[in-house]
Task: inverse folding
């Protein structure tokens, strides 16, 4: 007896799109069977998915929930946490997200993880994991602790090459420490996840723009520019190349120069992966001039329309593997608090519409196949981040994390219909498919606009980076 049969859908499997039934037992997928071949009596319940797309739940490998942002007046803004954003994610077909745990000032890796657990455990309705995020100079025993953390199931380390804003300190890690980190990661099977910008170029441009009185946020692309991405990506990737076995995931690639640097590294066979953000794929620096233009922004900035073309080219040519959100959920008022190059609120609100918006842009507008789309919003993140095939696959034995999309759904994205914030950067964006049912480990979390999840339904996912990912084999 199965717990659930999803009947008659167009199922996106690792082998391609198959018209079939999916049977679920407990938390996992128990069988894929020819459409109609499993009787209704063989399951406790059935969901009719005829004419619908059945895909693995979305995976967002880059979110910041319950995150502290310092407002222009110096007071902290704490963004929405996993209870709230997880619910929105599930409404949008996303079942797993990966956040960050700040590894600060001499704390142990274990303390870092336990501190972040307080924000997530018992609260998140989505499954979740953290990248350890280096902040401030790592302690001398850092390499040994990193090794332990990797073994314990925390195998990704976030590193910044810039402080991003002139007012900030502590994020940028110097190259000697990054070199040490790469050696530990390579030795123990970890993955570096990098925010790369050239700090000298960025800070130089801040000083110059401030000197010239060009401080409006519409100038952000001049500070966080293509040259910065070019220099920093190449420096990081050269450093990684010098430590054999270093696998690197470049977060939020925003410029053509970043795509080109990844292309060069991959042409050498290096295990280098690229992520972009849905915002960078659709908006450009010209959108800063629109009303409330800050809503399109995160750091690094939006770039030119030409950069956007290169990012799209990257998604179709094995250079950009994941489309993430850099989620930072706040109100419109808070998103608009800053309006200068040095105080505009970062992060995006978008974890809910990501699957729907990307379906429109990839499948409807650009002719991407369903498997290509699913790779970019789910499977590749699972493969790179050490979650596959437990996550990111509709296959026997995988977790029953499933999004059912209705491809006849038409309309526009409206903030009022979402569950995230009082605004969305995607307001008015065309809908050509939308998740109508979301299942997390066999539990129906959202169905026809109704929410059945609860805080704590989500579980921490311990991970192990696959040998194929570390070696740079095709995903
Ligand atoms: Zn981020």
Result:
């Amino acid at each position: 007896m199965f717990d659930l049969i999803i009947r008659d859908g167009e199922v996106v499997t690792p082998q391609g799109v198959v018209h079939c039934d999916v049977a679920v037992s407990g938390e996992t997928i128990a069988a894929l069977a020819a459409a109609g071949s499993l009787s209704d009596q063989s399951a406790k319940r059935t969901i009719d998915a005829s004419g619908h797309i059945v895909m693995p739940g979305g995976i967002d490998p880059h979110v910041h929930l319950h995150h502290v942002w310092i407002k222009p007046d110096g007071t902290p803004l704490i963004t929405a946490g996993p209870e709230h954003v997880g619910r929105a994610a599930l409404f949008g077909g996303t079942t797993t997200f990966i956040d960050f745990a700040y590894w600060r000032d001499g704390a142990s890796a274990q303390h870092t993880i336990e501190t972040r657990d307080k924000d997530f455990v018992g609260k998140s309705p989505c499954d979740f994991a953290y990248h350890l995020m280096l902040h401030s100079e790592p302690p001398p025993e850092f390499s040994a602790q990193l090794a332990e953390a990797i073994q314990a199931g925390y195998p990704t380390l976030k590193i910044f090459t810039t402080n991003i804003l002139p007012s900030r300190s502590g994020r940028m890690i110097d190259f000697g420490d990054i070199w040490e980190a790469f050696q530990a990661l390579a030795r123990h099977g970890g993955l570096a996840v990098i925010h790369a910008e050239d700090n000298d170029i960025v800070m130089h441009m801040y000083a110059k723009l401030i000197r010239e009185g060009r401080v409006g946020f519409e100038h952000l692309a001049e500070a966080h520019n293509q040259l910065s991405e070019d220099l920093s990506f190449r420096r990081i990737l050269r450093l990684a190349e010098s430590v054999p076995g270093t696998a690197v995931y470049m977060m939020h690639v925003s410029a053509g120069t970043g795509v080109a640097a990844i292309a060069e590294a991959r042409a050498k066979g290096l295990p280098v992966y690229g992520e972009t953000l849905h915002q960078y794929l659709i908006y450009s620096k010209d959108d800063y001039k629109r009303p409330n233009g800050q809503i399109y922004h995160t750091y690094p900035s939006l770039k030119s329309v030409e950069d956007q073309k290169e990012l799209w080219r990257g998604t179709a040519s094995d250079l950009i593997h994941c489309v993430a959100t850099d989620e930072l959920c706040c109100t419109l008022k808070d998103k608009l608090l800053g309006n200068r190059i040095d105080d505009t609120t970062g992060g995006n609100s978008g974890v809910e519409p990501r699957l729907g918006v990307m379906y429109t842009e990839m499948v409807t507008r650009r002719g991407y196949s369903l498997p290509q789309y699913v790779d970019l919003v789910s499977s590749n993140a699972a493969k790179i981040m050490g979650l596959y095939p437990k996550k990111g696959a509709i296959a026997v034995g995988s977790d029953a994390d499933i999004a059912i999309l209705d491809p006849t759904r038409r309309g526009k994205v409206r903030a009022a219909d979402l569950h995230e914030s009082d605004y969305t950067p995607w307001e008015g964006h065309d809908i050509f498919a939308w998740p109508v049912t979301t299942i997390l480990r066999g539990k129906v979390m959202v169905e026809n606009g109704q929410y059945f999840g609860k805080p704590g339904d989500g579980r921490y996912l311990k991970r192990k980076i696959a040998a194929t990912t570390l070696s740079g084999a095709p995903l």
In short: The chain has 14 helices and 21 strands. Residues 379 and 392 are 4 Å apart (CA to CA). Residues 62, 64, 326 surround zinc ion (CB under 6 Å).
